[in-house]
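FW: tagging you since you asked about this chain on Friday. Here's the raw sequence from the shared folder, copied in full. Didn't touch anything.
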Amino acid sequence: MPSALSKMIVYDKKITENTVKKIFKLMFPHNEKLIRLEACFNDKALDILLTNVLKNFEGDSEKVKKEFIDSLVSTKSILLKDAQFILESDPAAKELTEVIAIYPGFFAIFCHRIAHTLYTKSVHLIPRIITEYAHIKTGIDIHPGARIGIPFSIDHGTGIVIGETTIIGNNVKMYQGVTLGALSVDKSKASTKRHPTIEDNVILYAGSTILGGNTVVGRNSIIGGNVWLTESLAPNTVVYHKSEIIVRNQSDFNEPINWVI
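HL: got it, structure written out here
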């Protein structure tokens, strides 16, 4: 039988997810205010939701709530830069509305931006619920503690993992399956920098894995698909994984096929 604590966490999770949806709708309404900064965030329903979300917070919840609401205009300004960067980076994107309305990468970035705001105010459980909601919806797992520059682009996105102590600079582009992780999951290292630093103007292509708190990818570098990296790179470096592909005519192919599926 579930305890009172487990019931409380489930209840808060649902309210938090509803709050995320509400904030997104207020921030990006489907009208002429979509890209305007003067959108009103002092919505009574949002105020009530945030009050319920923070009701178990042991600090000054009213102060946190006010500061969070006051930050939403500047957060929208940042997110519009993210959306524009995605639009400019993806030849398949035709307009800003498309990026905001349907791109999973943009939604994951939105969730991270608002979660990180709360995380910096020493609110811990709620930001994790927010980013896990994004993880469920998009397949993109960004810890709210990660520090991400402006603008930031995620294309496709599924399978991306960005760890808690990751630092990402400005104008970074990231594709599906990228992992910015730790070399070890030893619990004793919880308070240390375990995840890499990605400097400005870096491109991380699909399937690349970069590990370690001391690993720094220098500015203007390009990390190719499926690269496994545990060492720092100087600025302006290109790293790629070279695999051998053999094409042969079936009639000349006499080797046994030992593939196991």
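FW: Residues 5-10 have pLDDT under 50 and may be disordered.
HL: agreed, and The two ends are 42 Å apart (CA to CA).
FW: great, closing this out.
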